[in-house]
Design goal:
The protein has 130 residues and is an alpha+beta fold. The chain has one domain: 2-Layer Sandwich (Alpha-Beta Plaits). A 4-stranded antiparallel sheet has the order 1-2-4-3, covered by helices on one side. The longest helix is centred in the last third of the chain and has 14 residues.
Length: 130
């Protein structure tokens, strides 16, 4: 799943390497409400399942944002944790929640996590650690 990886590594106080992912995905025309509903579902009725998915990938924090621009809407995603593991679990997990979650991504963005993306991954041009 390395083709999805846009990471920086930092060490926490215990010396454990923590990765970070930052990505922008196009939202298909007219799917902004579906994006909001998906986020509401995983922070509401499906929160326990989403928490379990994130724990299984060692994700410690995640933020989603909706950017509306003149050229369309975008899903902005940032998370910290084991980036490779997170993408691997999302792409290959066969439990009911992960299959549903992956389907939501496909419906909202058109991205099929079971297929590697085409083209190069984004280039990190600045990574400033404190």
């Amino acid at each position: 799943m390395g083709r999805y990886t846009i990471t920086t590594d930092a060490r926490d106080e215990g010396g454990v390497v923590m990765g970070a992912f930052s990505g922008m995905f196009p939202i298909l025309p007219g799917k902004e409400d579906a994006f909001r509903a998906w986020a509401a579902e995983i922070t509401g009725p499906r929160k326990e399942q989403y928490d379990a998915l994130n724990r299984s990938a060692d994700i410690t924090r995640e933020t989603w944002a909706l950017a509306t621009t003149p050229i369309g809407s975008f899903m902005l995603v940032w998370f910290e944790g084991d980036v490779e593991k997170a993408f691997e679990h999302t792409a290959t997990g066969q439990d009911a929640f992960t299959v549903w979650h992956r389907g939501q991504l496909l419906e909202v963005t058109g991205i099929d996590m079971t297929r590697p993306p085409e083209g190069p991954i984004p280039e990190i041009v600045l990574d400033w650690p404190a």
